[in-house]
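User: Structure with zinc ion, tokens only please.
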Amino acid sequence: MRRRVLEILAQSHAPVGAYEIVEKLAANGEAVPAMSVYRALDFLTEENLAHRIESRNAFLACNAGHERAEPVMFLLCEKCGAVAEMQAASFSRDVAKATKAAGFEARSSIIEVSGICEPCRKKSRR
Ligand SMILES: [Zn+2]
Ligand SMILES: [Zn+2]
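Assistant:
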């Protein structure tokens, strides 16, 4: 189940919503209750095999293979919906410093940057 969900996420360049996954599985003749999909997604995000894109309430397979709880940055294209994952090392150091100074124990930090991706920018320039 977890593998199937991860496969579906990996096949998409744009983040996929939980309900969309249920529908894709159903279209494949695999009727799976939404609850199992949510559980699989919980597992995958906890293991950092996938990430949750908060602003879209959707999920994306992780292609970076980074450490657990390592801060990541997402570039979200407003035109085509593509999402690129990037490391944000220096930014995350600043965040760590600031949260520590505030006496705050950070559990995760995900940065979402919206804008226009390179292929879309090239298209609009033509
Ligand atoms: Zn990742
Ligand atoms: Zn784009």
